[in-house]
């Protein structure tokens, strides 16, 4: 059988429960403001879910972020001979083991391993 949970609630806008309204761990809901409150172990009433926190222009913010990141250009081209330790265009150290063009002889496996069955 299902258990029905009925937290304390208010339908009055901007109404916030006080510590005398809730015990530690108890929830209250303001249906007008769409906010759920909880009394924590420090005896503070904290909002734990707030429907109003979602900005109205959220899609505009997402579009602006996508437009800004689309303009990022990564350097490309020849990084030179990597037979010694060097750095890439970002200043990160490159080990010669990652250089497929000038790797020492025998560094890359070319053995035919046969058919996969």
Keywords:
117 residues, two-stranded antiparallel sheet, alpha+beta, 1 helix
What is Rg?
30 Å
How many H/I helices? Answer: 1
Instruction: State which percent range the strand residues make up.
Output: 15-25%
Low-confidence stretches: none
Please provide a written account of the structure.
This protein has 117 residues and is an alpha+beta fold. Among the domains are: 8-52; 75-104, no CATH class. The protein has one helix and six strands, in the order E-E-E-E-H-E-E. It has one helix at 58-70; strands at 8-10, 27-30, 35-39, 45-50, 86-87, 93-94.
Gist of the model:
By secondary structure, the protein is of the alpha+beta class. The protein has one helix spanning about 60-70; strands at about 10, 25-30, 35-40, 45-50, 85, 95.
Topology, pairings included?
Blueprint: E1 8-10, E2 27-30, E3 35-39, E4 45-50, H1 58-70, E5 86-87, E6 93-94
Parallel strand pairs: 1-2
Antiparallel strand pairs: 2-3, 3-4, 5-6
């Amino acid at each position: 059988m299902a258990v029905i949970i009925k937290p304390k609630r208010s339908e009055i806008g901007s109404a916030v429960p006080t510590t005398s309204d809730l015990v530690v761990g108890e929830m209250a809901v303001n249906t007008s403001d769409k906010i759920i409150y909880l009394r924590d172990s420090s005896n503070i009433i904290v909002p734990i879910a707030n429907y109003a926190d979602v900005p109205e222009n959220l899609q505009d913010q997402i579009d602006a972020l996508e437009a800004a990141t689309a303009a990022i250009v990564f350097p490309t081209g020849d990084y030179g001979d990597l037979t010694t330790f060097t750095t890439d265009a970002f200043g990160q150290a490159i080990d010669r083991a990652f250089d497929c063009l000038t790797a020492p002889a025998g560094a890359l496996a070319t053995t035919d391993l046969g058919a996969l069955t």
